[in-house]
Amino acid sequence: MLKLDHIGLVAKNIEELANVFRALGLREITESHENPRQKVAASFVNVGGIEDVYVEILEPTRDDSPITKFLEKQGGGLHHLCFEVDDIKKTSRELVEKGFKMIVPPENCEAYDEGLKRGCNGVTKITFFIASDRLIIELIEKG
Fold it and tell me: Which range of residues forms the domain containing residue 36?
């Protein structure tokens, strides 16, 4: 079962974009947390209320971050859609069989749990795919 977890936006500056959401009246915005594996910092804005759907604001922390070139070419904006899954390995195999190209294999993402201050029994795992021509899909299996 897929459930939309978050929409990823890339920005030059997290706080600048977070202020846009604050001006819109959204107040549930997490502090920025770094994900050293992905070389990004991220902050989450709850836009779904009790449904817990988020906008993730991403900012590169290093020049070799996977989102640096995206930011240079596009100037920021929509980067990916993230869907929560129950079994990341199984769903990943199914997507590959359907022609999706895996660009980041499943890996731990402690920064997600820290950023949302989630108490977990395990570590959250993420993976990334390219679908269609340029749409990036992230899968997340919460710990």
Answer: 3-141
Kindly tell me the burial class for residue 43, based on how many C-beta atoms sit within 10 Å of its own C-beta (0-12, 13-18, 19 or more). Answer: buried
Which residue reads 């570590």 in tokens?
A: 123
Q: Tell me what percent of the residues of the chain surpass a pLDDT of 90.
A: 68
CATH label of the domain that carries residue 98: 3.10.180.10
The domain tally of the chain equals: 1
CA triple 33-78-40, angle to 5 deg: 25
CA distance 122 to 14: 28
Closest C-alpha to 1, from 139, 136, 99: 139
Residue 134 and residue 80 in contact, taking contact as beta carbons nearer than 8 Å: no
pLDDT over 90 (residue 42): yes
What's the pTM value of the predicted model, to 2 decimals?
0.88
